[in-house]
């Protein structure tokens, strides 16, 4: 997949460009329907499948409190590439760019720069200043410039509308199985392992790999989760605690992962953690001894869950997304 990180990088139009536009946060099953449609239509005309997205997410710029993202831009790019898209244009979103009118965007970007031959959008898509570029407007512009507009219907799974908003809600509630169903994969956090208090192994008997959350991160419900941990191309089982370590009166939110059957030094190295199942809420224990006993119980439950679902979990480790 060819990636362009601003409009000016595009120096010539693409051959028979079939285009879709969106924020694609999470690249969930609904987004994947869009990409599949674009790939299919571009193949039918021997053309180029093109996806256009924005970084940062527009609502991070336009809303006072921003928005919590399901996926980082890095993960979004990986997932869009897996969907088979030929070209990805990532437009830097700024307050100045937000002033761009819908007709100006179509004329300058879609028609002049990309050379759109067909546009594919979701049923509720709108863009441009004041979201003036709705479906009716897009079809009018398509008639004017000579490109058809295909609208992909809402996507439901077990009568649940697949949307980024719904997935964020499920993650915040710790409903990982339901979130995974709409995402088409496990919800994942990722980052470089940080140096923590280093008491996991010495004091409690369970060493952990610590990740810090950024302000824009979507933080799942605080508590303990069964996980898969992907590190240096290998996959391990584990348990993850998200919270403030009330037993030790901490005040910094962290994600601490105990990786099963693992003893390597991975400080500063990137890991990816798939959250499979919420086990219990975080709570304050009387001290390290009581906490250690509870973690032993958590580990036994987690290993049983991982063993029972070994076959279906193997593929998510292979993909690592």
Shape: elongated
The tally of helices reads: 10
C-alpha Rg, in Å? 22 Å
Number of strands: 14
Query: How large is the share of residues in beta strands?
Result: 25-35%
Percent helix, as a range, is: 25-40%
* Major β-sheet annotation: 6 strands, parallel
Integer average pLDDT: 91
Kindly name the structural category: alpha/beta
Report the uncertain regions.
Answer: none
Instruction: Note the run of SSEs as H and E.
Output: EEHEHHEHEHEEEHHEHEEEEEHH
Q: Numbering strands along the chain, what is their spatial order in the largest sheet?
A: 1-4-3-2-5-6
Task: List strands and helices in order, with pairings.
Layout: E1 2-4, E2 17-21, H1 29-44, E3 48-55, H2 58-62, H3 73-82, E4 87-92, H4 102-114, E5 116-122, H5 135-145, E6 149-152, E7 156-157, E8 160-161, H6 164-172, H7 176-183, E9 187-192, H8 200-204, E10 209-212, E11 223-231, E12 234-243, E13 254-259, E14 270-280, H9 288-308, H10 310-319
Parallel strand pairs: 1-4, 2-3, 2-5, 3-4, 5-6
Antiparallel strand pairs: 7-8, 9-14, 10-13, 11-12, 11-14, 12-13
Helix pairs in contact: 6-7
Describe the 3D structure.
This protein is α/β, with parallel strands linked by helices and 321 residues long. 34% of the residues lie in helices and 26% in strands. It is built from ten helices and 14 strands. The strands form three sheets. The protein has a six-stranded parallel sheet with strand order 1-4-3-2-5-6, sandwiched between helices. A six-stranded antiparallel sheet has the order 9-14-11-12-13-10. Strands 7-8 form a two-stranded antiparallel sheet. A hairpin with a 2-residue loop joins strand 7 (156-157) and strand 8 (160-161). Helix 6 runs antiparallel to helix 7. The longest helix has 21 residues, at 288-308. The chain is elongated. The two termini are 16 Å apart. The relative contact order is 0.12. The model has no long low-confidence stretch (mean pLDDT 91).
